[in-house]
Design brief:
By secondary structure, the chain is mainly alpha-helical. The chain has one domain. It has helices at about 10-35, 40-70. Helix 1 (about 10-35) runs antiparallel to helix 2. The mean pLDDT is about 80.
Length: about 80
């Protein structure tokens, strides 16, 4: 029986990818709760903030995946 072991860097990439995916899901959930438009200036600012955070994490996730060959589901 052949067991495939991930290198240390690939394990780190898998862990980091999982964490980023969790953070993206949490931020997206909060964004969905606020709604697409927001009722006031505060909510509109929060929408922009959450979207920026999601975009940053997606970019970081893409970099990890391209560097380590880690594949994850598209969101």
């Amino acid at each position: 029986m052949h067991i495939h072991r991930l290198s240390r860097s690939n394990r780190r990439g898998v862990i980091q990818s999982g964490r980023l995916e969790e953070e993206i899901a949490t931020l997206q959930q909060r964004l969905d709760q606020i709604g697409p438009d927001g009722d006031c200036g505060y909510e509109k600012a929060m929408i922009r903030f959450f979207q920026e955070q999601i975009d940053m994490r997606r970019e970081a996730l893409g970099q990890i995946q391209s560097n380590s060959g880690v594949a994850t589901a598209d969101r």
